[in-house]
From TrEMBL:
One of its GO terms (molecular function) is oxidoreductase activity. Transmembrane segments: none annotated. It comes from the Bacteria. This is SDR family NAD(P)-dependent oxidoreductase. The keyword Oxidoreductase applies. Belongs to the short-chain dehydrogenases/reductases (SDR) family. PANTHER family: 3-OXOACYL-[ACYL-CARRIER-PROTEIN] REDUCTASE (PTHR42760:SF133), SHORT-CHAIN DEHYDROGENASES/REDUCTASES FAMILY MEMBER (PTHR42760). InterPro entries: NAD(P)-bd_dom_sf, Sc_DH/Rdtase_CS, SDR_fam. Pfam families: adh_short_C2. It is an enzyme of class 1 (oxidoreductase). Keywords: Oxidoreductase. It comes from Lactiplantibacillus plajomi. Its EC number is 1.1.1.-.
Amino acid sequence: MLKDKVAVVTGAAQGIGFAISEAFAKQGADVALTDYNPKVSDAAAGLAAKYPGKIKGLVLNVMDNDSIQSGLDQIMTDFGRIDYVVNNAGGGVLKPFAELSDKDFDDTINLDLRGTFKCMRAEIKVFLKQGFGSIVNTGALGSIYNPGGMGAYNAAKNGIMGMTQAAAVDYADKNIRVNCVAPGLTKTPLNEGGFLDKILPTVPMKRYETADEVAKVFVFVASEATFMTGQTILSDGGVSVGLK
């Protein structure tokens, strides 16, 4: 149980981010759900009605330094500490490489890679002051097994893996762990459609991963894997080790 622990999740209004938030709440943690979408407040209220911990929603833009800092300041005021952060906010344009526009590439890099960098930088400063903390970033199976059409997205997600390793080494002796979880084929409101259906036959387990399943991995890496840092953990139904 994670009673008296505080978890912060970005991109938490729906999908995997919401599932991660609920997984923390189920374990008794206090949870701050953040998202650029104001509906995050409704998402948090729904969880607060089901679980006993303190649960709040906060509008936060991961691409804006002031928004990130004011959000973290507010969370520290409301909760008093931050034990775990999951940097989950992201998205991307999926097109064949030569069809990507500069805007497609820049938008994906800015949201996924630059947004994660900005959040990590601010979070680590908080953790250095309080003397502890655990960060888990959201990676992507496509960084390992690429079905095509992911040039910008993979550039961003591979960058997140590299930043995870770099920050983990920089702060391993400061009681700060930094890891990454790469979900498999997980259906969410943002990615339902033919794209995933085409890839499904290659998954050895022959099914999609649920958001609840991968959320448990995030919570474990954040809270239980206390000697793990700098790692990217795949939860992918066996795709990365073979096609069947």
